[in-house]
Structures are given as structure tokens and as C-alpha cells.
Amino acid sequence: MNGTLATLGRVTVGRTGTQCPCHSGHRYAACCAPYHRYEREAPTPETLMRSRYSAFALGLGPYLVRTLAATHPDLAAPRQELERNLARTKERQRFTGLRILHSASSDEQGEVLFLARIFERGQDRSFVELSDFTRQDGVWRYASGILVSKAALPVDIDALTPASFLTLAANASAQP
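The structure corresponding to this sequence follows.
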């Protein structure tokens, strides 16, 4: 199947011989594709976060909705509308890079701090997010996230820790 188009329902998800959109350095077929095809569940919060980033880049709205925690507020919207809106993200944005700054988890909770490089109509919309994950019925799900746009970030992004990021986020939200 290497080099062929992989189809998930009506959604073409990309060439299996190409690099994964999560920027792991691995081939898509060996990285996020098995999660997108529902062949496996993500074993860690970081893996789930990477697969969600790839799903945004590929326009996989159903996968993005499926990987939300049951308590996520987006689930209040009609499912088909939410899937359609999330799938259309790839029409407006280019996903050009992902860098993991921190990842940790316990048996039931996890967090991932990451830099997402995203461009929309030539404008840099990159951000750092601290995402929270929860395990529901033995499966990791995205619960929530706090993000800060690149413009409000320090020059040395690699020095960010979850604690320093939360301080930065609180200061950024307090600014007019």
C-alpha cells in the first residue's frame, strides 16, 4: 500500500509513503495513519496529540471529534456540524511544524506542552498550547487546552515549562 492513497470513509488521508504531518520524522503509514484508520488507539497523550495535529492538517473531522473527552464543550454542537467545521480547518491553514516541549502522564491524566507552527493566508498563527488529556474507558482523549499565540511567547521557547507557560498564559490573558 506504500505510495497509494489511503481512504478513511470519504476522506482521503494522504499518501502512505509520505512523511507524517505530525513532523515526527516517520512515514505516515507507520505513525499516525493507524490511529486515523481506527486500527489502534493512541497509547500516550503525546501520541494522541500528534495524531490530532495530523488530523487537523489532513482535515479528518470525524477523528478529531472521536478523540475529544466526553466533557469537552465542543461536543455540545451537533456532531456532523462539528466534524465538518473541524475538517475544513485544513482549507484555511497550513500546518508546518510541531515541536514537543514537555509531555507527562499518570495512569488517568496527561499533559503535553507543544509548539504548533501554523500559517493562515500568509499570516503566522503559530502558538504554544498546554493540552490536558484524560483516560476514558482505557482510551486517551483530549480534555482541554490553554494556548498562547507566538507573538506573546518568549524568544527561548525551549525553556518553557508547564509552570512558566501557565504564568505566561495568565499574564497574556490579563493584558488588554
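Helices lie at 33-36, 45-58, 61-66, 79-87, 89-92, 162-174.
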